[in-house]
Amino acid sequence: MKDPFAGMHWMLVTPFNNAEEVDTGSIKKLVEKAAETGCVGVVALGEMGEWRRLADRERSVILDQVMTAAGDRLKVTVGTTAPSTYVAVERAREAQKAGASAVMVSPPTLAKPNPEAVKTFYQRIADSIDIPLVVQDFPQTSGVHMSPQFTAQLAEAIPSFQYLYLSYQYSR
To answer: Using CA atoms, how far apart are residues 34 and 66, in angstroms rounded to an integer?
Structure first.
């Protein structure tokens, strides 16, 4: 059976207009371009999507615009990273309700939790939704580096953890 997520996923930035409002027309254009170029999915509200700087109202507008523009043509993965488990769970539920294909979550930012707390964080999110969980390992923002061994333990403990997104900044 072919993996429904196999293929290219376009990481969407969040465009703003000159009035510093979310540029919904540009969101539609970005999603269209992803579809035209053969992507199988888009990722909204991830690290590149300005999620830290968005009000809840703006997140809702973006989620609605992306879901509408993608329709049935593209998988939509929604970033639901948040500084707390409660907010991450609420965002994951909101994404699923809107029709997201998966959620992508990095460990809570700046909290620097221990491995057991990270596991509990992901388990609570996974338990709150029925769609796949993409674990994002982005130590530059979370302060947490997830080792391959820890990631394997997470995958064993959380069946909906089916995908891993590694975000590393390499220096030369």
So the answer is: 11
Confidence check: pLDDT of 172 > 70: no
Specify the length of the chain in residues. Answer: 172
Residues 6+ apart with CB under 8 A from 40: 5, 6, 7, 8, 9, 74, 75
In this predicted model, what pLDDT tens digit does every residue of 72-128 receive, in sequence order? 999 999 999 988 999 999 999 999 999 999 999 998 866 677 889 899 999 999 999
Residues 6+ apart with CB under 8 A from 41: 5, 7, 8, 9, 10, 34, 74, 75, 76, 77, 101
Taking alpha carbons only, the member of 76, 77, 90 closest to residue 124 is 90
Residue 22 CA to residue 59 CA, distance in Å, equals 9
Q: Please provide the CATH number assigned to the domain covering 9-166.
A: 3.20.20.70
| Closest among 156, 160, 112, 113 to 135, alpha carbons compared | 160
Domain ranges of the chain: 9-166
Q: pLDDT, tens digit, for every residue of 23-81?
A: 999 999 999 999 999 999 999 998 766 777 899 999 999 999 999 999 999 999 999 99
Structure tokens at 25: 């027309």
Is-contact 95 78, C-beta < 8 A? Answer: yes
Q: How far is Cα 143 from Cα 55, in angstroms, rounded to an integer?
A: 23
